[in-house]
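Observation: inputs received (chain + nicotinamide-adenine-dinucleotide).
Thought: call the complex predictor directly.
Action: predict_structure
Action Input:
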Amino acid sequence: MGQTILVTGGAGFIGSNLIRFIMQNRPDDRVINLDGLTYAGNLESLAEFTDNPRYEFVHSDISDSEKLDEVMPRVDCVLHLAAESHVDRSIHDPSLFLRTNIIGTQMLLDAFKKHKGKDGRFVYVSTDEVYGELPLDDKSQLFTESTPLKPNSPYAVSKTGGDMLARAYWHTYGMDVCITRCSNNFGPYQFPEKVIPLFVNNLIEGKTVPLYGDGSNIRDWLHVLDHCEAICRVLDDGKSGEAYNIGGNNERSNLELTRMLIELCDRDESAIERVPDRLGHDKRYAIDATKIKRELDWEPTRSAWPEALELTVQWYKDNRAWCDHVRSGEYRRFYEQNYAART
Ligand code: NAD
Ligand code: TYD
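Observation:
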Protein backbone atom coordinates (compact mmCIF):
# COMPACT_ATOMS: atom_id res chain seq x y z
CA MET A 1 0.00 0.00 0.00
CA GLY A 2 1.31 3.42 -0.89
CA GLN A 3 1.77 6.25 1.56
CA THR A 4 1.47 10.02 1.50
CA ILE A 5 4.92 11.54 2.00
CA LEU A 6 5.27 15.14 3.15
CA VAL A 7 8.46 16.61 1.70
CA THR A 8 9.39 19.99 3.20
CA GLY A 9 11.61 22.22 1.07
CA GLY A 10 10.55 20.35 -2.06
CA ALA A 11 11.03 23.41 -4.27
CA GLY A 12 14.74 23.54 -3.43
CA PHE A 13 17.68 21.69 -4.91
CA ILE A 14 17.62 18.35 -3.09
CA GLY A 15 13.87 18.45 -2.38
CA SER A 16 12.92 18.80 -6.05
CA ASN A 17 15.25 15.97 -7.05
CA LEU A 18 13.82 13.87 -4.20
CA ILE A 19 10.24 14.48 -5.31
CA ARG A 20 11.12 13.52 -8.88
CA PHE A 21 12.88 10.40 -7.55
CA ILE A 22 9.80 9.40 -5.53
CA MET A 23 7.38 10.11 -8.37
CA GLN A 24 9.46 8.00 -10.75
CA ASN A 25 10.43 5.14 -8.45
CA ARG A 26 7.57 4.77 -5.95
CA PRO A 27 4.41 4.71 -8.07
CA ASP A 28 2.13 3.85 -5.13
CA ASP A 29 3.18 6.89 -3.06
CA ARG A 30 1.75 10.40 -3.10
CA VAL A 31 3.81 13.53 -2.36
CA ILE A 32 2.80 16.73 -0.62
CA ASN A 33 5.47 19.39 -1.19
CA LEU A 34 5.35 21.99 1.59
CA ASP A 35 7.61 24.94 0.83
CA GLY A 36 7.71 28.61 1.80
CA LEU A 37 9.28 29.58 -1.57
CA THR A 38 12.21 31.62 -0.30
CA TYR A 39 14.74 32.88 -2.83
CA ALA A 40 15.99 29.25 -3.08
CA GLY A 41 12.66 27.60 -3.91
CA ASN A 42 11.64 27.36 -7.56
CA LEU A 43 8.56 25.37 -8.61
CA GLU A 44 9.77 25.39 -12.20
CA SER A 45 12.05 22.56 -11.07
CA LEU A 46 8.93 20.38 -10.75
CA ALA A 47 6.91 21.78 -13.66
CA GLU A 48 6.14 18.32 -15.07
CA PHE A 49 4.17 17.36 -11.93
CA THR A 50 1.99 20.47 -11.63
CA ASP A 51 -1.18 18.62 -12.68
CA ASN A 52 -0.24 15.13 -11.49
CA PRO A 53 -2.87 13.73 -9.07
CA ARG A 54 -0.12 12.07 -6.99
CA TYR A 55 1.50 15.46 -6.34
CA GLU A 56 0.28 18.45 -4.34
CA PHE A 57 1.98 21.74 -3.52
CA VAL A 58 1.26 23.60 -0.28
CA HIS A 59 2.70 27.10 -0.03
CA SER A 60 3.60 27.42 3.64
CA ASP A 61 6.34 28.19 6.08
CA ILE A 62 7.32 25.19 8.24
CA SER A 63 6.44 27.24 11.30
CA ASP A 64 2.87 28.07 10.21
CA SER A 65 1.00 25.87 12.68
CA GLU A 66 -2.44 26.55 11.15
CA LYS A 67 -1.29 25.27 7.77
CA LEU A 68 0.45 22.34 9.44
CA ASP A 69 -2.80 21.47 11.23
CA GLU A 70 -4.48 21.17 7.81
CA VAL A 71 -1.72 19.12 6.20
CA MET A 72 -0.42 16.75 8.89
CA PRO A 73 -3.58 14.64 9.30
CA ARG A 74 -3.27 13.73 5.60
CA VAL A 75 0.34 12.49 5.67
CA ASP A 76 1.90 9.20 6.70
CA CYS A 77 5.52 10.33 7.05
CA VAL A 78 7.77 13.38 6.71
CA LEU A 79 11.04 13.97 4.88
CA HIS A 80 12.19 17.29 6.35
CA LEU A 81 14.55 19.22 4.07
CA ALA A 82 13.31 22.82 4.30
CA ALA A 83 16.13 24.98 5.58
CA GLU A 84 18.28 28.02 5.04
CA SER A 85 21.19 26.21 3.45
CA HIS A 86 24.02 28.55 2.45
CA VAL A 87 27.02 28.85 4.80
CA ASP A 88 28.09 32.28 3.48
CA ARG A 89 24.64 33.77 4.11
CA SER A 90 24.69 32.36 7.65
CA ILE A 91 28.04 34.07 8.31
CA HIS A 92 26.56 37.35 7.11
CA ASP A 93 23.33 37.03 9.15
CA PRO A 94 22.71 33.98 11.38
CA SER A 95 19.26 34.94 12.73
CA LEU A 96 17.06 33.53 9.92
CA PHE A 97 19.08 30.30 10.07
CA LEU A 98 18.29 29.80 13.74
CA ARG A 99 14.64 30.69 13.17
CA THR A 100 14.06 28.33 10.25
CA ASN A 101 16.45 25.49 10.98
CA ILE A 102 15.88 25.20 14.74
CA ILE A 103 12.55 26.82 15.66
CA GLY A 104 10.96 25.82 12.34
CA THR A 105 12.07 22.23 12.85
CA GLN A 106 10.63 22.25 16.37
CA MET A 107 7.27 23.56 15.04
CA LEU A 108 7.21 20.84 12.40
CA LEU A 109 8.09 18.13 14.93
CA ASP A 110 5.36 19.43 17.25
CA ALA A 111 2.77 19.33 14.46
CA PHE A 112 3.80 15.77 13.61
CA LYS A 113 3.62 14.78 17.29
CA LYS A 114 0.16 16.37 17.62
CA HIS A 115 -1.38 14.68 14.60
CA LYS A 116 0.60 11.46 14.12
CA GLY A 117 2.25 10.81 17.47
CA LYS A 118 4.27 7.60 17.20
CA ASP A 119 2.39 6.55 14.08
CA GLY A 120 4.63 7.40 11.12
CA ARG A 121 8.28 8.16 10.46
CA PHE A 122 9.94 11.58 10.53
CA VAL A 123 13.26 11.79 8.67
CA TYR A 124 15.42 14.84 9.41
CA VAL A 125 17.85 15.58 6.59
CA SER A 126 20.95 16.84 8.38
CA THR A 127 24.50 17.42 7.15
CA ASP A 128 28.06 16.24 7.73
CA GLU A 129 28.81 19.83 8.78
CA VAL A 130 27.43 18.97 12.25
CA TYR A 131 30.73 17.16 12.91
CA GLY A 132 32.89 20.23 12.31
CA GLU A 133 36.01 19.76 10.23
CA LEU A 134 38.86 17.29 9.68
CA PRO A 135 42.53 18.20 9.18
CA LEU A 136 44.01 18.28 5.68
CA ASP A 137 47.17 16.37 6.64
CA ASP A 138 45.66 13.08 7.88
CA LYS A 139 43.47 11.46 5.23
CA SER A 140 42.82 8.44 7.45
CA GLN A 141 40.36 10.47 9.56
CA LEU A 142 36.68 10.25 8.58
CA PHE A 143 33.41 11.33 10.19
CA THR A 144 31.50 8.39 11.65
CA GLU A 145 28.06 8.57 13.28
CA SER A 146 29.76 8.59 16.71
CA THR A 147 32.13 11.49 15.92
CA PRO A 148 31.29 14.26 18.44
CA LEU A 149 29.14 17.06 17.03
CA LYS A 150 31.29 20.20 16.83
CA PRO A 151 29.68 22.54 14.27
CA ASN A 152 31.70 25.58 13.24
CA SER A 153 29.52 27.93 11.16
CA PRO A 154 26.19 29.48 12.17
CA TYR A 155 24.60 27.30 9.43
CA ALA A 156 26.16 24.14 10.87
CA VAL A 157 25.09 25.10 14.40
CA SER A 158 21.51 25.65 13.23
CA LYS A 159 21.46 22.25 11.49
CA THR A 160 22.92 20.64 14.61
CA GLY A 161 20.10 22.19 16.66
CA GLY A 162 17.52 20.61 14.35
CA ASP A 163 19.40 17.30 14.31
CA MET A 164 19.53 17.11 18.10
CA LEU A 165 15.92 18.23 18.49
CA ALA A 166 14.80 15.46 16.13
CA ARG A 167 16.67 12.91 18.24
CA ALA A 168 15.20 14.43 21.42
CA TYR A 169 11.65 13.91 20.07
CA TRP A 170 12.53 10.23 19.58
CA HIS A 171 14.07 9.95 23.06
CA THR A 172 11.49 12.01 24.95
CA TYR A 173 8.21 11.28 23.18
CA GLY A 174 9.00 7.93 21.60
CA MET A 175 8.45 9.30 18.10
CA ASP A 176 9.75 7.36 15.09
CA VAL A 177 12.62 9.61 14.00
CA CYS A 178 15.66 8.96 11.78
CA ILE A 179 18.46 11.37 10.87
CA THR A 180 20.59 11.46 7.72
CA ARG A 181 23.95 13.28 7.54
CA CYS A 182 25.22 13.69 3.99
CA SER A 183 28.18 15.34 2.34
CA ASN A 184 28.09 18.09 -0.35
CA ASN A 185 25.51 17.35 -3.03
CA PHE A 186 25.88 18.17 -6.73
CA GLY A 187 23.54 17.76 -9.69
CA PRO A 188 20.76 19.60 -11.54
CA TYR A 189 18.52 22.35 -10.06
CA GLN A 190 21.04 23.65 -7.48
CA PHE A 191 20.72 27.35 -6.69
CA PRO A 192 23.66 29.15 -8.33
CA GLU A 193 25.12 30.52 -5.11
CA LYS A 194 26.67 27.13 -4.28
CA VAL A 195 30.11 26.55 -5.69
CA ILE A 196 29.44 24.20 -8.64
CA PRO A 197 26.50 25.99 -10.33
CA LEU A 198 28.00 29.40 -9.47
CA PHE A 199 31.32 28.54 -11.09
CA VAL A 200 29.71 26.84 -14.12
CA ASN A 201 27.44 29.84 -14.76
CA ASN A 202 30.35 32.26 -14.43
CA LEU A 203 32.56 30.20 -16.73
CA ILE A 204 29.82 29.88 -19.38
CA GLU A 205 29.21 33.63 -19.20
CA GLY A 206 32.92 34.48 -19.63
CA LYS A 207 33.34 35.72 -16.04
CA THR A 208 35.94 34.78 -13.41
CA VAL A 209 35.29 32.35 -10.53
CA PRO A 210 35.92 33.46 -6.92
CA LEU A 211 38.04 30.74 -5.30
CA TYR A 212 38.26 31.18 -1.52
CA GLY A 213 41.75 31.22 0.05
CA ASP A 214 44.28 28.81 -1.42
CA GLY A 215 41.65 26.35 -2.71
CA SER A 216 43.01 23.52 -0.56
CA ASN A 217 39.76 22.88 1.34
CA ILE A 218 38.32 19.44 0.63
CA ARG A 219 34.70 18.39 0.18
CA ASP A 220 33.24 14.93 -0.49
CA TRP A 221 30.91 15.24 -3.49
CA LEU A 222 27.73 13.15 -3.57
CA HIS A 223 25.35 13.04 -6.55
CA VAL A 224 21.95 14.31 -5.45
CA LEU A 225 20.15 11.20 -6.78
CA ASP A 226 22.42 8.93 -4.74
CA HIS A 227 21.39 11.05 -1.77
CA CYS A 228 17.69 10.76 -2.67
CA GLU A 229 17.95 6.98 -2.90
CA ALA A 230 19.65 6.86 0.52
CA ILE A 231 16.93 9.03 2.11
CA CYS A 232 14.26 6.64 0.79
CA ARG A 233 16.25 3.66 2.10
CA VAL A 234 16.31 5.28 5.57
CA LEU A 235 12.58 6.07 5.33
CA ASP A 236 11.78 2.43 4.55
CA ASP A 237 14.27 0.48 6.65
CA GLY A 238 16.26 2.81 8.92
CA LYS A 239 16.30 2.03 12.62
CA SER A 240 14.32 4.47 14.74
CA GLY A 241 16.45 6.94 16.73
CA GLU A 242 19.53 6.33 14.55
CA ALA A 243 21.63 8.66 12.40
CA TYR A 244 23.08 7.53 9.04
CA ASN A 245 26.07 9.06 7.28
CA ILE A 246 25.76 9.35 3.49
CA GLY A 247 28.84 10.07 1.37
CA GLY A 248 30.02 9.97 -2.23
CA ASN A 249 33.52 8.43 -1.80
CA ASN A 250 34.57 11.41 -3.86
CA GLU A 251 36.90 13.79 -2.02
CA ARG A 252 38.25 16.74 -4.01
CA SER A 253 40.01 19.98 -3.14
CA ASN A 254 38.28 23.15 -4.31
CA LEU A 255 41.24 23.85 -6.61
CA GLU A 256 40.92 20.40 -8.21
CA LEU A 257 37.16 20.95 -8.65
CA THR A 258 37.75 24.40 -10.16
CA ARG A 259 40.30 23.04 -12.65
CA MET A 260 37.88 20.30 -13.75
CA LEU A 261 35.09 22.85 -14.27
CA ILE A 262 37.42 25.14 -16.23
CA GLU A 263 38.26 22.26 -18.57
CA LEU A 264 34.62 21.22 -18.99
CA CYS A 265 33.72 24.82 -19.88
CA ASP A 266 36.64 25.36 -22.30
CA ARG A 267 38.26 28.11 -20.27
CA ASP A 268 41.78 28.48 -18.87
CA GLU A 269 43.34 29.15 -15.46
CA SER A 270 43.13 32.91 -15.94
CA ALA A 271 39.43 32.46 -15.04
CA ILE A 272 40.42 31.81 -11.42
CA GLU A 273 40.11 34.85 -9.18
CA ARG A 274 41.69 34.31 -5.76
CA VAL A 275 39.49 36.01 -3.17
CA PRO A 276 39.81 36.29 0.63
CA ASP A 277 38.96 33.11 2.49
CA ARG A 278 35.54 32.42 4.04
CA LEU A 279 35.59 33.19 7.78
CA GLY A 280 36.16 30.01 9.79
CA HIS A 281 36.32 27.99 6.54
CA ASP A 282 36.10 24.25 7.40
CA LYS A 283 39.16 22.46 6.01
CA ARG A 284 37.95 19.01 5.12
CA TYR A 285 34.75 16.97 5.23
CA ALA A 286 35.01 13.21 4.67
CA ILE A 287 32.42 10.55 5.39
CA ASP A 288 32.58 6.99 6.63
CA ALA A 289 29.34 5.55 5.20
CA THR A 290 29.89 1.92 6.18
CA LYS A 291 26.88 1.90 8.52
CA ILE A 292 24.31 2.63 5.80
CA LYS A 293 26.02 0.13 3.49
CA ARG A 294 26.06 -2.59 6.14
CA GLU A 295 22.56 -2.01 7.54
CA LEU A 296 20.59 -0.70 4.54
CA ASP A 297 22.64 -1.98 1.62
CA TRP A 298 23.15 1.51 0.17
CA GLU A 299 26.23 2.82 -1.59
CA PRO A 300 26.70 5.60 -4.15
CA THR A 301 26.42 4.53 -7.81
CA ARG A 302 26.04 7.90 -9.58
CA SER A 303 28.69 10.08 -7.91
CA ALA A 304 31.90 9.09 -9.75
CA TRP A 305 33.85 11.89 -11.46
CA PRO A 306 34.57 13.01 -14.13
CA GLU A 307 31.46 11.40 -15.70
CA ALA A 308 28.90 12.65 -13.14
CA LEU A 309 30.42 16.14 -13.03
CA GLU A 310 30.42 16.32 -16.83
CA LEU A 311 26.69 15.47 -16.97
CA THR A 312 25.97 18.09 -14.31
CA VAL A 313 27.89 20.80 -16.18
CA GLN A 314 26.01 19.83 -19.35
CA TRP A 315 22.69 20.22 -17.49
CA TYR A 316 23.57 23.82 -16.56
CA LYS A 317 24.65 24.51 -20.14
CA ASP A 318 21.33 23.11 -21.43
CA ASN A 319 19.09 24.86 -18.89
CA ARG A 320 20.02 28.52 -19.15
CA ALA A 321 16.38 29.64 -18.73
CA TRP A 322 16.09 27.86 -15.35
CA CYS A 323 19.34 29.48 -14.18
CA ASP A 324 18.28 32.95 -15.38
CA HIS A 325 14.83 32.67 -13.78
CA VAL A 326 16.02 31.49 -10.39
CA ARG A 327 18.72 34.17 -10.26
CA SER A 328 16.49 37.02 -11.39
CA GLY A 329 13.33 36.31 -9.40
CA GLU A 330 11.48 35.54 -12.65
CA TYR A 331 10.65 32.09 -11.24
CA ARG A 332 7.86 33.72 -9.23
CA ARG A 333 5.86 34.12 -12.44
CA PHE A 334 5.62 30.33 -12.73
CA TYR A 335 4.15 30.12 -9.22
CA GLU A 336 1.69 32.96 -9.88
CA GLN A 337 0.50 31.46 -13.17
CA ASN A 338 0.21 27.85 -12.02
CA TYR A 339 -0.65 27.97 -8.34
CA ALA A 340 -1.51 31.37 -6.85
CA ALA A 341 -4.10 32.06 -9.57
CA ARG A 342 -5.98 28.86 -8.74
CA THR A 343 -6.52 29.51 -5.04
P1 NAD B 1 17.94 24.76 -0.88
O1 NAD B 1 18.38 26.04 -0.25
O2 NAD B 1 18.20 24.53 -2.32
O3 NAD B 1 16.37 24.55 -0.65
C1 NAD B 1 15.75 24.85 0.57
C2 NAD B 1 14.24 24.87 0.34
O4 NAD B 1 13.60 25.10 1.62
C3 NAD B 1 13.76 25.98 -0.59
O5 NAD B 1 12.81 25.47 -1.51
C4 NAD B 1 13.11 27.00 0.34
O6 NAD B 1 12.04 27.71 -0.28
C5 NAD B 1 12.61 26.10 1.46
N1 NAD B 1 12.49 26.80 2.75
C6 NAD B 1 13.44 27.55 3.36
N2 NAD B 1 12.96 28.05 4.51
C7 NAD B 1 11.69 27.59 4.63
C8 NAD B 1 10.68 27.74 5.62
N3 NAD B 1 10.89 28.48 6.73
N4 NAD B 1 9.49 27.13 5.44
C9 NAD B 1 9.27 26.38 4.33
N5 NAD B 1 10.18 26.21 3.34
C10 NAD B 1 11.38 26.81 3.50
O7 NAD B 1 18.62 23.62 0.01
P2 NAD B 1 19.15 22.17 -0.43
O8 NAD B 1 20.55 22.30 -0.88
O9 NAD B 1 18.15 21.53 -1.30
O10 NAD B 1 19.18 21.44 0.99
C11 NAD B 1 18.05 20.71 1.46
C12 NAD B 1 18.36 20.17 2.85
O11 NAD B 1 19.52 19.32 2.78
C13 NAD B 1 18.69 21.25 3.87
O12 NAD B 1 18.09 20.89 5.09
C14 NAD B 1 20.20 21.22 3.96
O13 NAD B 1 20.64 21.64 5.23
C15 NAD B 1 20.48 19.75 3.72
N6 NAD B 1 21.81 19.48 3.15
C16 NAD B 1 22.16 20.01 1.94
C17 NAD B 1 23.42 19.70 1.40
C18 NAD B 1 23.84 20.23 0.06
O14 NAD B 1 24.95 19.92 -0.39
N7 NAD B 1 23.01 20.98 -0.65
C19 NAD B 1 24.31 18.89 2.10
C20 NAD B 1 23.93 18.38 3.35
C21 NAD B 1 22.66 18.68 3.85
P1 TYD C 1 29.44 25.63 -0.88
O1 TYD C 1 28.94 25.19 -2.20
O2 TYD C 1 29.01 26.96 -0.35
O3 TYD C 1 29.11 24.46 0.17
P2 TYD C 1 29.58 24.26 1.72
O4 TYD C 1 30.07 25.55 2.24
O5 TYD C 1 28.33 23.80 2.39
O6 TYD C 1 30.64 23.19 1.69
O7 TYD C 1 31.02 25.64 -0.91
C1 TYD C 1 31.76 24.48 -1.25
C2 TYD C 1 33.23 24.83 -1.16
O8 TYD C 1 33.56 25.80 -2.14
C3 TYD C 1 33.59 25.45 0.18
O9 TYD C 1 34.86 24.93 0.62
C4 TYD C 1 33.70 26.92 -0.10
C5 TYD C 1 34.13 26.98 -1.56
N1 TYD C 1 33.64 28.15 -2.31
C6 TYD C 1 34.52 28.96 -3.01
O10 TYD C 1 35.76 28.75 -3.02
N2 TYD C 1 34.02 30.04 -3.69
C7 TYD C 1 32.68 30.33 -3.69
O11 TYD C 1 32.26 31.34 -4.32
C8 TYD C 1 31.78 29.47 -2.98
C9 TYD C 1 30.30 29.75 -2.96
C10 TYD C 1 32.30 28.38 -2.30
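Thought: report the result.
Final Answer: Residues 260 and 301 are 20 Å apart (CA to CA). The chain has twelve helices and twelve strands.
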